[in-house]
Amino acid sequence: MATYQMNFNQDFTSLSVLSPTGLRLYSIASQDKVEEIFAKDNTEQIRIVERLFNSSLVVLVTAQKPNCLKMLHFKKKQDICNCFYPSEILCVRMNRQRLIVCLAESIHIHDIRDMKILHSIENIAPNEQGLCALSLNSHLAFPVCQTSGELRIFNASKLRTGMTIKAHATPLSALAFSPSGALLATASERGTVIRVFCVKNGQRVQEFRRGVSCVRIASLVFSSSGDFLCASSNTETVHVFKIDPRAVETVELKAIADVAARSESSAKESITFTAAEDVSKTATPVASWGGMFSKAVSSLLLPTQVSEVLAQDRSFATVQLDQGGLKHICALTRVQKELRLLIACEDGFLYVYEFLADRGGACKLLSVHDLRGALEDVIELHLSESVLRSQTKSSNPTIMTQPSLTMLKSCAASVLIENPDPMQDNSYASILKGDQADAMSDSAKFRKLCDAIDTPTKLYDERQFPPVAIAAKD
C-alpha cells in the first residue's frame, strides 16, 4: 500500500498530501467539500512540505538536496529563495514572524519577512527526529537531553533563552503549543502520559493518562480554541482531553505570586537602611502586599485541589479507527462554525468526525474524503443508523454499507490552479500580513500570466516583493 505524508497548515484550513508521485494542496472549505488548489509532480523527491497559513507560500525540502530549503510562491510558480545549511534539514516550522529550521545539532531562526538568519542555537543535544514546536507568538520548544524528557523554551521573537522544563523521565516524542502560546503539551517515547505545562513559569497544569501500554505518539495538537488537546498514536484509538480552565488559572496565579515574591525580595535588598523609621515606611507596604497575595494563592493550592487538577485519567472524547498501525495527523477546529475533529491518515484519506464540546464521548464519523489522486470532486460519506451514503455532483449517488476504503472512488480530473486577481496585492509582504485571501481562477489565464512574469533574482524585487518595511506592521 502506498503511503502518503499528510500535514495541516497552522490554522487547519488546508492539508498537504505528499506521495512518491506528487504533491497536492487541498483547501478544507466544509466537512462535505475539499478543494484541490495546487498540484505538482514529485520529480524532486520532496520530503518536507509546510504551507504558511492560507497563503501561496510553501516551503519544500527534497531528498535530492536535503540541506536546502526552497520557498515557493505556488500561485506564480516562482522560487522566492533557497537557503542552505551545514547538514540535513529535519523539520521546518513557521508563523507570520519567524521561520525555524531544525537540524540534528542546531536550530536556525529566520525573519520570515526577508529570510535573514537572526540567530542560531548551536551545540544542542543530538535531535535526530528534528523535534521542535513553534507557537503563533514565536515561543520555540525543543529537547535538550537524549536520555530524559528535558526541554527548553526559547523566545524566538526577542531571541532570549527561557526556562528549562523536566517534562518526562524518558526522551520526548511530541511537543505542541496552544494557540495562545500560554500552554505546552508534551509526550515521551513511552506515550502513556501526556502533560501540559504553563509557559510562563514551567509549572505542570494537567496530566493525562493515555493508557498503560507504550505507544508511539503520531500527533499531539490543541484545538483552535485551546480548550482541548488531541492525541493520536499507532493504536486504533484517538484521544481528546479537556483542558481545565481552573487548573490554568491556578498555575497562572502562582506565577504572579512568584513574581510578587521576587519583587518583594528585590525591594528589600534595594532599601537603604538609614533609619528605622525610613525602613518601616519603605518596606512595610511592599511586604504586606506580597504577603497577602502569596497567602491568597496558597489558599488555592490545597492538596485535594492539586490532586484534582493534576490527575485527569480519562479522555473527554475518543475515536475508534478501523485500523491501527497507521500514522494519523489530527486537527480539532471549526469548519463552517461547527467544531469538527479532522483525522488525516497516511493511507490517503481525510476523515471528518463530529465533536460535541458539551458532553464528549465517542465521536461520530460524518464524511470521508479520498485524497489519493487528482480530483475534480470529492466523495462524502454521510452516516445514518443503517447505511453510509456517498454524495457527489453526479446525479447518481453511490450507496455503501460500510466505510470500506477499497470502495471509495478515486476521481481523476484536471488540476485546479489558482490565479490571483490582477487588482489584488499578492506580494510577499502582503501574504505575511495575512490580509490576502487565496482566490481560484481558470488555469489557462494563470499560465498566460506566469509566462509574462520574470522570476525575481532576489527577495526584494520591487515588482513582486515590496520592501520589508511594508510588512513591519504585521
Beta-strand proportion: 35-45%
> Which whole number gives the mean pLDDT?
77
Oligomer: single chain
CA(first)-CA(last) distance = 44 Å
Secondary structure category? alpha+beta
Global shape: globular
Strand order of the largest sheet: 21-22-23-24-28
How many helices? The count is: 5
Amount of helix: 10-25%
Rg computed from alpha carbons, rounded to a whole number of angstroms:
25 Å
**Uncertain ranges:** 272-310, 376-423, 436-474
The total of beta strands comes to 32
- Note the main sheet: 5 strands, mixed
Helices and strands in order:
Blueprint: E1 5-8, E2 14-18, E3 22-30, E4 33-41, E5 46-51, E6 57-62, E7 68-73, E8 78-84, E9 91-94, E10 98-102, E11 106-111, E12 116-122, E13 133-134, E14 139-143, E15 149-155, E16 160-168, E17 172-177, E18 183-188, E19 193-198, E20 204-209, E21 217-222, E22 228-233, E23 237-242, H1 245-270, H2 276-300, H3 303-310, E24 317-320, E25 328-335, E26 338-345, E27 349-354, E28 361-362, E29 365-370, E30 380-383, E31 388-391, E32 398-400, H4 428-433, H5 443-451
Parallel strand pairs: 24-28
Antiparallel strand pairs: 1-2, 2-3, 3-4, 5-6, 6-7, 7-8, 9-10, 10-11, 11-12, 13-14, 14-15, 15-16, 17-18, 18-19, 19-20, 21-22, 22-23, 23-24, 25-26, 26-27, 27-29, 30-31, 31-32
Helix pairs in contact: 1-2
